[in-house]
Amino acid sequence: MEQSRTVLGIDVGGSGIKGAPVDLRRGELVEERLRIDTPPGAEPDAVAEVVARIVSHFGHVGGPVGCTFPAVILGGVVRTAANVSEAWIGTDAAALFAAATDREIVVLNDADAAGRAEVRFGVGRDHPRGVLLMLTLGTGIGSALFVDGRLVPNTELGHVSLGDETVEERAAASVRKEKDLSWPAWAARLSEAINAIDALVWPDVVVLGGGVSRKAEKFVPLLDVRPTLATAVLRNEAGIVGAALAAHEHHRA
Ligand code: BGC
Predict the structure, then answer these.
(1) Which domains occur in the chain, in start order?
(2) Is residue 168 lining ligand 1, measured as CB closer than 6 Å?
């Protein structure tokens, strides 16, 4: 095995854009991460400028850079815009970020990145076989589906219908805050959401991630669902780690 395998990972989110070099032997950040507020409106050029600032801050880390984005990404191109500016639809994010940074950039969906990190370095190691679904609970609800450890990219299970709403409109972590829901009230919504998704994909394990997973003890015991539940262990760093992993593997392929 190579001695050093450090790759820069960047996680583009609705409120912040965070990056750090990741040691891919251990799945850990090797330097303090840099976080910059997402520019208001999160328009493509403004986001690319922030990505470039993060890349230049960690200019000593060579090689390809991995970058998450909260949308469906096909071949580096953004195809949806649920929680970001519509201007992104059809934008080749990989090309835009490469032009802004003068580096090779691999772009993937944020939940797919978080899931890849969990599968490789986190709770996924306890569940190497079967169907594992990672749900990221944040501004929206992201999903990443794995079969025997292999990702089925760009599942958008946060957009499954739930009555008049979608799963993410009803049960995202942001909804708990906006509506000032109690933990039991939000847990009831999240159970409904997981059950609606379960009826479609019947996962063996559901891994709950996103910032709110730090408070897992407040809501996980209240969930009434069929699949085995697990809490993400990489927490806020999963996106950065998964982005770096994707860049490294893409480069090697
Ligand atoms: C987007 C997904 C994303 C999720 C979490 C959803 O609204 O459609 O692509 O993974 O939010 O950010």
Answers:
(1) 3-109+237-252 (3.30.420.40), 123-232 (3.30.420.40)
(2) yes
| Predicted confidence (pLDDT) per residue in 186-199, tens digit | 999 999 999 999 99
Q: What is the crossing angle of helices 44-57 and 93-101, to 10°?
A: 50
Taking the whole predicted model, whether its pTM rises above 0.85 is answered as yes
Protein residue whose Cα sits closest to atom 1 of ligand 1: 71
Strand 150-152 versus strand 165-166 pairing type: unpaired
Which H or E run includes 10?
strand 6-12
CA 110 to ligand 1 center in whole angstroms: 7
Distance of CA 118 to the CA centre of its chain: 10
Does the beta carbon of 71 sit less than 6 angstroms from any atom of ligand 1?
yes
Helix (H) or strand (E) holding 193: helix 183-201
